[in-house]
Amino acid sequence: GDYGALAGELVGWVGAAPLRERLRAAHVRALYAAGRQGDALASLAELRALLADELGVDPSPALAELHAAVLAHDPALIGDGIRSATAAVAERPGHLPVPLTPLVGRAEAVADVAARLAAHRLVTLTGPGGVGKTRLALEAARSAAGHRDGGWLVELAGLRASGPAAVAEVIAGILELRTEAGPDPVARLAGALRTRELLLVLDNCEHLADVADVAAAVLRAAPGVRVLATSQVPLGLPGEVVAPVAPLDPATDAVDLFLARAGAAAPGRELDRDTVAEICRRLDGLPLALELAATRVRALGERELLARLDHRFELLAAGQRGVPERQRTLRAMIDWSWELLTEPERTVLRRLAVSADGCDLAGAEAVAAGDDLAATSVAGLVGRLADRSLVTVVPTATGPRYRLLESVAAYAGERLRAAGELGTVGRRHRDHLLALAARADRGLRGPEQRHWLDVLDAESANLRAVLDDAVRTGAADTALRLVDALGWYWFLRGRLGEGRRSAAAALAVEPAGGDGVDGGLRARVGAWEAGFAVQLGADPGLAEYAEAALARFAGTGDDAGLAWARWFLSLGLVGVGDVPAHVRRVAAALTAFRRLGDRWGQAAALSLSADLARPLGSADAGLRSADEAAALFDELGDRWGLLRVTDTLAARAEIEGDYDRAAALHDHGVRIATELGLATELSYQLAGQGRVALLRGDHAAADDLHERARQLAARHAHRRGEQFAEVGLALSARRQGRLDDAERHLRTWLDWCLDADGDLGAALILAELGFVAELRGDAEAARALHLDGLAAARSAGDLRAIALALEGLAGVHALTGDGAGAAELLAAAAAAREESGVPLPPAERGDVDRIAAAAAALLSRAGDGQAIRRQSSG
After folding, report:
1. Which residue, of 372, 401, 419, is where some domain finishes?
2. Which residue in 377, 547, 720, 766 is a FRET match for 675, CA 20 to 30 A apart?
3. DSSP code at position 105
4. pLDDT value of position 285
């Protein structure tokens, strides 16, 4: 293997956790196998020194043996040793950020917190701001016993909205869970986590009292979940274990931390340890204060730095009434840092405070630039602030983002208010995000779709903060415009519950100083709210709900908005309700899109028309619509649109028996969904591949693909995708003769389909359950199931589903010895399939041929067997 690459991969993990002996041993083995014996020995020497300095202990016997083996060139180091190294890489945590610098002075605390997590399900780290709670929590989370679904960091500092629902949505977003039906986001989150085994690190909880309610709900519902919280105060829940985090010892650990950070800022500079110890004492051993101070050593030196600290503490020596001691120390430290800045640096720092979750360079320029500061100078000023550790630079998919440490952000916000700039800078921030959301809305329908998804992912907390402010202050126009711009993003990301709640909140705003809101805008947001509700299947009377939303466009003159609303609402109603009504609505939308020259709208309407054509027996027209939609989406560069048409074309290829084309289309769909990061769409495409494998008779591949799809959908709480995949498992199980497994899979989803998925999904499950009963010889149960399935199929208006139910009933008649009845029903089924324009392909004729043969045997004495075979061949 490439041992050098393995050693390189491990070096970052060793740097992040230098005292973890198993990681260190894996690194040493990889270095030795790469021919770097000297580096391997140096790594062991470094660990020996760290253990002595940090813990006052010697290396373990296992490490001593490893040292001897390296010296002796033991051949066993290559082979089993490398497998151990590879296993160590595989065990690394996958969802927690890896720090760039090692944690200093917390080895004992890390072990203590990890032990508490092993014994208890809720541990809260408490202590003042800047004491290092977050860093300790992350290190302890990485050191804790493995969790099947990993450890996840949920940063709550940027959340301003109140209520458990907002907290639950932030957690669901971090875990990439798709929201589904139900009015309570907390209950949905708890339900989505019920089978998960993971560690949630809830960071910065003290400003959100509702975090405790959400944590309690999750812990009650999900026995495999553990919570590690950081807060200035305990959550106050039963069973909570509180672990106070103390400052570093100013004489030892704090000095080591300061020297490490100062050494990075001023390499090669020798510092006086006694002077550094005095600096650490004056800064109370708070890691945040120490790290900020260490960056000044290069400019000031340790003695001048100490003198300045004397002056700054003197400023607050008398104290401020009502302010905790820990805040006085942080305020003094940040005051000192503030006074080291130039006036332009101060201007940028205080204006950056309006971003709840940081910003990119364009965002920084938008809020910081003004008459007193040129936009072209902002980048350099932000870089200087980053050099001084007042701004943290975070790499993301769309480029670097700039964030303020939480205490620095609070301080900068006070300075912003004191300067009288909060209103002006807040409006700049709002206008920048409104314009960004509008650009993203357009970009999400073109070739830069993935880029704009990443941009809105990064700005999600800031956008939520602006929306919350608009709702709170009665800024109806801002709230409605923002929801209208973000609706398609929420849809693509599967955040339907968040979209519906946001639209409802915007519609409920009581405008300050008169309405003045465009009627078309209000109608569009109403259509978003109704469309999300329809997609969720959360309310009875979905079709009536959609019609009421369309009625709001009357008198607005917004023809484009009405056309879009007709399409979007019909998209959620596929398979539910009156299919001919949906067809008429989409046809009206298509006519309007063509009149308006909206090519994306035309493509979307044509794609949906293709889906609606299938159950009505208009297969050829549907195929033409799908081809036209694909050409338009390809011209526009809309990958989501191509993905959607891929589904339609693949389904048609399956129906026609062209399984090679269906497989190729689903393969293409998998690539698109992966590139766009659309996990729920990927689940559908994997299940589509599974259906093709099933039709080809490759049951092992079908089961593997359907199970992968089911697990992916379940991880994202996507019930409809999970149902589609598990029904595929049921289809495969029945065809392999595993009737009990098939029934178990089907029964899991029957009630849900009857309640939420519409008649078409229920028709298929009822038909499959009917076949299971018939194959077991239970004619009465099979008859009842197939009759229910026939009723559902007729309600859905799907000729192929009707034919399937009739074929099932034919099997019941054959089972009871009624060959003539079976023959009649097979003939009726064949007629329905002929009317649909989609004959039954050979790979799907197993049940029909089996039942036809049974009926023929019953009627063979009368000479009717050959006729039955002819009738059933449609």
Report:
1. 419
2. 720
3. S
4. 86
Residue 73 sits in the same domain as residue 133: no
Q: Are residues 691 and 759 in the same domain?
A: no
pLDDT of residue 515: 55
CATH of the domain at 372: 1.10.10.10
Q: Are residues 257 and 237 in the same domain?
A: no
Contacts of 134 (CB under 8 A, 6+ apart): 203, 204, 230
Question: What angle is formed at CA 314 by the lines to CA 309 and CA 318, rounded to 5 degrees?
Answer: 145
* 166 and 234 inside one domain: yes
pTM over 0.85: no
pLDDT over threshold 60, residue 786: yes
Q: How far apart are CA 404 and CA 628, in angstroms?
A: 50
Same domain, 259 and 316: yes
Helices (H) and strands (E) in the chain, counts: 42, 7
The answer on pLDDT for 88 being more than 60 is no
% of residues, the chain, pLDDT over 90: 51
Q: Which domain holds residue 156?
A: 107-244
Q: Is the pLDDT of residue 81 over 50?
A: no
Mean pLDDT across 585-594:
96
Considering its fold, how many domains does the chain have in total?
6
Which CATH number goes with the domain that contains 750?
Answer: 1.25.40.10
Q: Which helix (H) or strand (E) holds 433?
A: helix 422-443
* CA 658, 664, 668, 674 torsion-angle sign: positive
Average pLDDT in the chain: 85
Instruction: Fill in the amino acid letter for 256.
Output: D
- Asked if 117 and 235 sit in the same domain, the reply is yes
Contact 549, 561 (CB under 8 A): no
Determine, yes or no, domain membership for 434.
no
234 neighbors 240 (Cβ within 8 angstroms):
yes
**Same domain flag for 325 and 344:** no
Domain annotation covers residue 133: yes
pLDDT for 79: 58
Residue 720 shares a structural domain with residue 754:
no
Residues of the chain by 3-state class (helix, strand, coil), percent to 5: 70, 5, 25
At 25-67, the pLDDT tens digits run 888 888 888 777 777 887 888 888 777 766 666 788 888 888 8
- The answer to whether the CB of 144 falls within 8 A of the CB of 151 is yes
Query: Poorest-confidence range of 5-14, 229-238, 778-787?
Result: 5-14
Measured distance CA(667)–CA(662) in Å, rounded:
9
Q: Is the Cβ–Cβ distance between 792 and 760 less than 8 Å?
A: yes
Residue 519, domain member (yes or no) = no
pLDDT digits (tens, 9 = 90+) for 264-278: 878 888 899 999 999
Instruction: Name 682's bridge partners.
Output: none
Instruction: Note whether residue 221 is domain-resident.
Output: yes
pLDDT of 321 above 50 = no
Residue 325 is encoded by which pair of tokens? 């001691």
User: What are residue 556's phi and psi, to 5 degrees?
Assistant: -85, -25
Beta pairing class for 122-126 and 151-155? unpaired
Q: Can you read off the two tokens belonging to residue 614?
A: 């299938």
Q: 548, 549, 616, 540: which is closest to 578 by C-alpha?
A: 616
List the structure tokens of 632: 């338009």
Would you say 742 and 734 are in contact if contact means Cβ atoms under 8 Å apart? yes
β-pair partners for 229: 124, 202
- The domain that holds 124 is classified in CATH as 3.40.50.300
Cα–Cα distance between 590 and 598 in angstroms, integer? Answer: 9
Last residue of a domain, one of 319, 338, 357: 338
Question: Which element (helix H / strand E) includes 404?
Answer: strand 399-404
Q: How far apart are CA 585 and CA 573, in angstroms?
A: 11
Query: Quick one: tokens of 188?
Result: 């949905």
